[in-house]
Model the fold of this input.
Amino acid sequence: MKLIYVIILLLLLTGCQPRPQVPPENVPYERYVEPINFTSNETNATKIEIKEDVFLPPKKDNLSIYINDINGQSVIAIKKGISLLIDAGTEDDSQTIIKNLRNLGVNDLDYIILSNKLETSIGGLPYIIIQTSPAIVYEGGKPSPFSSSFNLYKEIYPNATLISTDKLLEFKDAFVKIMVPYDKGQGFLDQQEDNSVITKIKYKENNFLAMSNCHFECIENIKDSDIKADGLIIDGSCDSTTLSFLQKVNPQVVVITGELCSETEDRFNFLDIPIYSTE
Done:
């Protein structure tokens, strides 16, 4: 099992080096827990530290973000004991997510954000709700009445809060902004994945953008929003980014949660953006 770990600090660490996108020749590329540390000093410089084979628990005063290594989509954020789960993966992913939450000391979730109604985001939700009793579930995306996972989730948790316009949540001394690509009067977009809500987490001067399954049409609808971020999570598909989008986000690092398309990889390489993957 592997988590990619992102921790946003207000200390300047030394000796921080990004992992190269391609392993050096004759050095094996191993699967391991990958903590990625975003650090900022008074001048807001950001560095990245990689530690192999280490599982780091949440720090008391920091924002900690964990990207689950699963088949679907799922991100855990913890700040001073307050917990947030963005997406719930597939049905088969549910036990891995629950185990990771328990390892992080989370028994009852404070928030769940459901980005869309795709099985890769909602499949594990019924089981996670039963095991973690979330206080609030925010639901975005186009309804999916033919999804068995969606119908089961609605039976278990009928009082979810539907997100139809952008919403700002206070997350201790951090902030979570839920960005809605279909709230400009035209209704839902054609492709199911393009109706994904986007989650932006802001702590001090650092920003982290979780795109879920947001693709070309979704990207077009949010391009004029506040999307600049130090860290970016995308699924890595060919339509998960554009060059102009990446230039506006201007990320320090990108985490890929699915199979990386060569066209998408070329965009990162052109802009010299470090890539990390749960694959």
Q: What stands out?
A: Residues 7-54 have pLDDT under 50 and may be disordered. The CA atoms of residues 194 and 277 lie 22 Å apart.
